[in-house]
Each structure stands twice: as structure tokens, then as C-alpha cells.
Amino acid sequence: MLIISLTIITSLFYVLATSHVLSRLFHKQGPNQKVTVILSTVAILAHMLLLVNSVFRSEGQDLSIVNVALLTCWVIVVSVTAVSLKFPATLLLPVVYGFAALLSVASLFIPHHILLQSIDVELGLVAHISLSLLAYCILIIATLYGVQFYFIDKRLKRKDLAIVHSHLPPLMVVERQLYQLLNLGTALLTIALVCGFVFLDGMFAKEFIHKTILSLVAWAIFVVVALGHIKQGWRGKPVVITIMVAAFVLTLAYFGSRFVQEVVLNKF
């Protein structure tokens, strides 16, 4: 009952925050920051309590894909909200808040069970998991910046005066932040993969080989794009689409097989 109540509170305040930002999306002054912060803070705190009560059970730790997704989503929401306090992120906020609301509600209906796990505190494993999660979150945020860049660029090319006088950030600022996040996320993903190969056995074992290969494919794409921008000045729509493809491949690597095993196959 507690988890249901926390889920309702979390999703409700995420929806309220989303609605507030969307209602003033193209307003010159943008959404009221104080209202946005209050609504999002309540949602974030409720989300955190939901995570604590969902993961830590009397039977053990529930590290199912649903809870891992909720944790990843929480990190992204906190990061984007923090960034928005200093830099305009009007387009990103409704996306992350809206997705967080949907995921919170979906967690009540997606079948998942308690996974009794003994937590391995080996330094190599902890480093690999922590860096992988952080890299994924940063690269997803970079992808969102790419979507924001594409949206603003498209509206500017159409000579849309509404976007010129809106609270949305300048195109060049969005592009600069996009590549800063891309470089940081790619570097962290590189270190995470190195830690995995150095400290973990079985990266190419049958049950993990698909995750390893997909992660390497995504990493290669991110590296090529990052180097292409630095060395050749790559930019624009093709780069944004490539980053989105890489983010999708990395998402498949992190969540694809677990979703099939824990959700799809669990129904049959």
C-alpha cells in the first residue's frame, strides 16, 4: 500500500511539473522557476522514497529491471533539474518529467519479482556498475540535448518568431552543451568498459555476450561522433540522429535482455 501511495504522489507531481512547464513553453519569461522547483522537488523526493521501499525489502534486495529503470530515471531527472537551475532546459524538463511519471505508473503494472541478491562489494564490480550507470545517464541527457537542438534548429529554419522570443536557450549554447555531455559520457563509458574487461570474468560468456557486444557497438558510435566533431567539425541533424541510434543500442544493451527475461517471458 505504501508503494502504491508513493507511486501516485510521484506521478502526480511529475505530471503537475510537466503541465506547468508545457503551459509556458514558448512564453518569453518561460515557466516560473520557483513553481517548477517546488513541484519537481516533491516528485523527486517521493521518487526516492519509492525507490528505497521498492529495492530494500525484508526478503532481500529487489534489483529487477523495473527498479533499475526507476533508479536510472531518478538520476536523469535530478541531473536535468539541477542543470535547469543554471541553464535554460525548458524543452528537456517536460520530457524527463513526463517519462518519469509514465514509468512510475507503469511500474505498478509491469510484472517483476523479488530477486534475492547477495551484494558483491568487490571494488572492480562496484566501479564498473557505477561508471556504467553514470555514463548511461549522461549519454541519455546528451541525446535529449540533441533532440532539443534539432527542434530549435528546425523551428529557426522555418523562421518561427515564437521560438525567437521564447525562453528556449540559444542554439549554439545547446550545441556546446550537447558535445560537452557527449565527450564526458563517452569517456566514462570507456572507463566503465575497461573496468569490466580488467576486473570481471565472463564479459563474453554466453549470458552476457549480447550486452557486451551491444555496449561496444554503442561505444564505437559515440567515439566516432565525438572524434568526428573534434577533428572534422561534424554537426547538425546527421550527428543528432547518430547519437540517438547509439543511445538506443546502449539502452538495448543495458535493458533489452532483462526486459525480455523478466517481463515478456514472465507472462508466459
UniProtKB/TrEMBL annotation:
Keywords: Membrane, Transmembrane, Transmembrane helix. It holds the Pfam family Cytochrom_C_asm. Residues 42-264 form the Cytochrome c assembly protein domain. The chain crosses the membrane at residues 33-52, 64-85, 91-111, 123-151, 178-200, 212-230, 236-255. This is Cytochrome c biogenesis protein CcsA. It comes from Pseudoalteromonas marina. The lineage of its organism: Bacteria, Pseudomonadati, Pseudomonadota, Gammaproteobacteria, Alteromonadales. The gene is ccsA.
